[in-house]
Design goal:
Oligomer: heterotetramer
Helix content of chain A: 25-40%
Strand order of the largest sheet of chain B: 4-3-2-1-5-10-11-12-13
Number of helices of chain B: 7
Strand content of chain A: 15-25%
Shape of chain B: globular
Radius of gyration of chain A: 20 Å
Shape of chain A: globular
Number of strands of chain A: 14
Number of strands of chain B: 13
Strand content of chain B: 15-25%
Distance between the termini of chain B: 20 Å
Largest sheet of chain B: 9 strands, mixed
Chain lengths: 300, 217, 300, 217
């Protein structure tokens, strides 16, 4: 049975109410198309773990999130329309705060299959007073104290990549934020990809693989799937334009109505956004002077 | 006449702004062979200024996973295709922080909402945590920078609210209560900590874990 | 001051008597040329940490090693000529035994800058009776027991790669064994490389970088530097031929006399080995039907 | 007449060797959707046989850092350019074992010097550790395989020396002293452990942590 399916199918089959959801892409290549689909399907009571992911505010604003595990999140409601709306509708999520590295190490412990990770940050801060997933512990071998963060094992992880094969063996390059740890820590995995390629393309460069296909549940091909963020090799981002598009109740609601609930899928979103932004909008985000890497050789 | 207006007048006379001065002062912290951990904003500006002037060989480490020795254009965010382009290594947040946690990043810059006399920074909340008067976005990489870098410089605009006796919430511990060895006691790398606070008015250093005025711009 | 130097210079400048030495290349691309040079310079009292590295038996046999940290090492002296010789000359090293993953996690803790790594292997085995770098500890958060291995932070690490630039920013592909962890954990680092390339080649593919140049002390260009092991993209190996060449006192001593002490450097070794093995020997190890990876694009 | 000679005679009659039988029996443990952790030798042979017959879609994980779903030629070592070629992922030893430690590898194979009634394996020493009668090379990936894989199969030739009541040195703990929950107590993943021992003479399973004969070839 093929893993390749539409976004609608993948999200409805594998993202469930109450799930702990990992969203990839720390400012680089987040799975925006998938997030829009979760909003459309109103899958709720989510706990979200992510690092610097912009589209998570849509999930929060639409009241789908019970809890956020985060290192950094705008919490001044006068500047965060999504968070302000969540309070208005009585669905403001609980927020557990870490440092960025704390989130990374919690996900790494999840990937590694160990219950905690020792670390030398966060300890001594007041974060420990309000987040019982961080603690101080005695070190084995030499004694003395060290910090520890509890493992995070997401129920479902969504990773957007440049390319993967039909089995889901997925390759992402550029900065990878907490993607390697987060997606490998996840129990179920959806790969959304700019392009599904022949397995041979993957297998001629297996060092780029971030996750092997046998770990993956669903594969969705979605060009421009990370817009408005940038995607290495594919397109530049418009993060600040996007932030302005969502700033203030009126604009936020218009964006949701027109571009999320008013579209059936990401291709419709892209078409509508191009209509609003002008025909040059996506063209301007294309890569202007691409240079190529040296191919490497395999064989024996 | 408020301080703010005097500042503006001074800037007009001098032909450069207080922000310019903060950037230059921060850049002067960077030596040619330094490995510098920077976030976006003034720290990024300072490191790029240093790289374009007295420290052309410094290495710049950016939290999302970029390590560069080659010059680049000022980015608007910590990650962009401009930041990726022609870097030496593209990797993840974990990996660049391993370099820090294992002692290989000697200088770090960070902004802060507030800083107190012991160099503790607040990037989280003013007032009660559960019912705050004001909220910042939280640590981000700030706690990591101040935990891991050999020497951390804090850059912020100066005001009474931003310089309380003790911060309401310790997001990034400096020298905690100022007693010697407190950082090491709780398991942080030995000998690290904040070394400078650069504001629009002057530069502070630390002596025995306490902030002292070093110079006025 | 350039980091590019001869092997003789690099080894004499950066490998010191008494050092804890990490040798890269778990069956793939070990720095054989560098090991030969350490033997020639008789740098002794080493502690060696490595995984499945074949040339380490030369260091042991020549009496240069006080201690080995290992997951797997032939210790039947009737089959390990190097170990037998070390006993004969009164220099048999102490051997601290881990599992492979135990070694990997000790080096990872070193790379990460934390004093230990929790893990779920080795515990319950008798290895803990004889290796006090492995222990059992109580878990924070949920209680109960887990294993832990003490960090290893080598004084000097040697990594052989396909390519690096003159600053030492180094890229290796193919299986990477414990290279990523071991080389990043090392305080001083020597990169030996099949080829020194322009920095632009590295920077057009920065995701392949294993270690950034600022961490590196010395760069040595040495084609065929991993022979008799294989090196992805470059050549096949002759591990079994090499093992036979060193089996038994007579052959072992002849190898050392002719190919190590009897040569001034690796190029002479390669020339002599070709003379002994026949002119087709190295040609036969070349890659026969190379295929190329798809280049990736960078730019904005 | 020794057992060994009978064995040879039987092999001649049957047209296949005891080793062939061990490989086939091991291969039968592998199902089509399995993720299989293998080392070199008979385990590698068994997994490749399975992949060429009843389990074409199984994934093969090799300790040095190779993950493959595509068929390949039998390698002479756990790592070679043949093993790399056309694999799905090339990475390191840590990464493939993370897959195991986090429960994503369901079946593992390993050889062993000795195995005892509780499935504990010795790959280290016979006799006193510091003055052994015989030495094997140690755990290698053996302890990792038996610690992490959901179900581990041990493959070895049978003899009285290789099947002691209790092994002299526990390199890879099976069910330890056989009491229930002993693996979990010391912090190993729950529900894992040896499920089969395949020898030249037959196949053993485990019941309540103790080895029982299941079938004779």
């Amino acid at each position: 049975m093929s893993k390749v399916m539409t976004m609608t199918e993948a999200i409805s089959k594998f993202v469930k109410s109450g799930d702990l959801l990992f969203i990839s892409g720390a400012q680089h290549g987040e799975p925006s198309a998938a997030i829009h689909e979760i909003v459309r399907q109103k899958i709720d009571h989510l706990t979200v773990v992510a690092c610097l992911v912009n589209t998570q505010q849509l999930l929060i604003g639409e009241g789908l999130v019970d809890k956020v595990l985060t290192g950094y999140m705008p919490q001044d409601e006068s500047r965060s329309t999504g968070l302000a709306k969540s309070r208005r509708i009585g669905k403001r999520p609980e927020i557990k705060e870490y440092s960025h590295f704390g989130i990374a190490m919690a996900l790494l412990a999840g990937q590694m299959g160990i219950p905690f990770m020792p670390l030398k940050c966060m300890i001594g801060s007041d974060m420990l007073k309000y987040n019982d997933n961080i603690t101080s512990m005695e070190r084995p071998f030499d004694g003395g104290q060290i910090g520890a963060v509890k493992a995070i094992t997401p129920d479902i992880g969504i990773l957007h990549v440049q390319r993967c094969d039909a089995e889901g063996t997925a390759q992402k390059w550029g900065t990878v934020g907490v993607d390697q740890e987060g997606i490998n820590a996840s129990r179920k995995i959806i790969i959304t990809t700019e392009k599904i390629v022949d397995a041979d393309v993957i297998r001629r460069d297996p060092n780029r693989t971030m996750i092997p296909g046998f770990r993956v549940s669903a594969v969705v091909e979605q060009p421009w799937g990370a817009h408005p963020m940038h995607m290495a090799s594919c397109y530049n981002g418009d993060m600040f334009g996007y932030m302005m598009d969502l700033r203030g109740e009126e604009k936020y609601e218009a964006y949701l109505k027109d571009l999320v609930y008013g579209t059936a899928n990401w291709d419709e979103y892209l078409k509508k956004r191009a209509e609003v932004k002008g025909e040059e909008y996506f063209k301007n985000l294309e890569i202007k002077n691409p240079v190529k890497s040296e191919p490497i050789i395999s064989g024996f | 006449m408020t301080q703010e207006k005097t500042q503006e007048e001074l800037e007009k006379e001098a032909g450069y702004t207080a922000t310019d001065q903060m950037v230059i002062s921060a850049a002067r912290q960077i030596k040619n062979d330094d490995v510098v951990y920077v976030g976006v904003g003034l720290p990024m500006l300072a490191s790029l200024f240093a790289k374009n002037s007295h420290a052309p060989d410094c290495n710049i480490v950016i939290e999302n996973g970029t390590i560069r020795s080659y010059i680049f254009a000022l980015p608007r965010a910590t990650d962009s295709l401009q930041v990726h382009y022609q870097s030496d290594q593209l990797t993840g947040l974990a990996n660049v922080n391993y370099l820090g946690q294992s002692g290989h990043i000697n200088i770090g810059f960070m902004g802060a909402g507030q800083v107190d006399r012991y160099g503790n920074c607040n990037d989280t909340a003013i007032g009660d945590y559960h019912n705050p008067v004001h909220r910042w976005p939280g640590s981000g990489g700030g706690n990591d920078v101040m935990s891991f870098c050999k020497a951390t410089t804090v850059i912020l605009r100066q005001s009474k609210q931003r310089f309380p006796e003790r911060v309401d919430f310790v997001t990034c511990p400096g020298y905690l209560d100022g007693k010697p060895g407190r950082r090491e006691e709780i398991g942080r790398p030995a000998g690290n900590g904040p070394v400078a606070v650069i504001t629009n008015l002057g530069i502070y250093g630390f002596e025995n874990g306490e902030m002292v005025l070093e110079s006025v711009h």
